[in-house]
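Researcher: Structure prediction, please.
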Amino acid sequence: MSQKTESPEPQQRAGRIFYGWYIVAAGTISSFVNMAVFMVGLSIFIKDLRDEMGWTLTAISIGFSLKTLETGILAPVSGYLIDRLGPRIMAIFGNVVMTIGLLMFANMDTIWEFYLSSFTIALGQGMGAHMAYITPVMHWFHKKRGVASSFIAMGRGWGYIGSLPITILLVAFGWRDAAAIAALVFLAINFPMALLLRASPEAYGWLPDGAVVSDQGSSKSDSKEVGKGDGSYTVKDAMKTRAFWFVLLANSIYSFGTSTNHTHFITHLRFTGFTSPSAALVVSIYGAVQVLGRLSSGWIGDKMGRHRLLMWSFVLMGLGWVAIALITPERLWWVGLYYLTYGLGQAAHTVTQQTIVADFFGPKRYATLRGIMNPIGVLGGVIGPLFAGVMFDAQGSYQIAFFMIGPMVALGFPAILFAGIPQLVADPLSEKQP
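Model: Predicted structure follows.
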């Protein structure tokens, strides 16, 4: 069905730029705006919500956790629809619904309206806001999958830098107008990016990584047949493997840590004495570290094995939580250690985690498999922010919670270790052995 919904504009032509790179560019830009507005941007408003509405951090954290939970619950449906209807339709739907949800957030007055806006944003995110952009990359690239994914991950890294303009809007207009402006900017940028998406290269005379069918007389149906022999697992067969369940476990561990970071890190900085602009500056510099780290992680992962880089990313992130717990305006050296540990660890994870499912099970049912994993994996993303919010309300500080999170995150290392080595991609270290 997906081939019927995709228009055949990107045809095979001599000297033309491989269309997969246009999809990568669209995904990079979309990831930047999505991260800036909905992942980092919303957390900037938490302290202002608490001050104006009088809500506890636990109550606010419930809204963020509900958003994460719903996104995970919808993931199997989203993955199935992306594989069947094509990524463009789902990306358009997700972007429009997310915009509506953020406009609802900007006009809310009660906690129930806050939860309803979170539900609406999650509906858009769960139905394809990110998955619709990364899924076609898995089809359009094979050997260059790590590099292509690193560009999209780099876009998400730039999203941290996007906290600066949102903070400027917050200071100039207040959180309500800042949220409304961000919603409209998000739609204006992401809607045309969604129009560039195409499901797979074979329908347009290409093969993955920009290769073309050698027989110039081959038809498009012939190129489709060539693309079928990639060894992709069926959903049923993938779920019978040990790797599926250990990758799922690692995803849940990561979700626990990163959702807590996205929800509470800026709030932590502001409660330890950082002003809104200075907290945004810390996050923006972190974004620059992410951009460089994610771009280099694609190349490093392709050289050492993406699954190995994924393992070590959990160790770095676990160490990073110690630095996060100890950051204050008087101890800025911990910010530098945070960049070197958590920052580089998350950069490596973001790149490799996007490709690991395709590396283990092939690209054919990538979105469906990711969708099946998400409802279980996202439980960590629901529990993490709630845990930190409850601990803050009880202790008046995040420090104990963050010290506890570090070792939990590091458990991702053995999870990926026990998943084994992907068999559908060449192991670069094994290739070097005589």
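Model: Residues 346 and 395 are 27 Å apart (CA to CA).
Researcher: Thanks, that helps.
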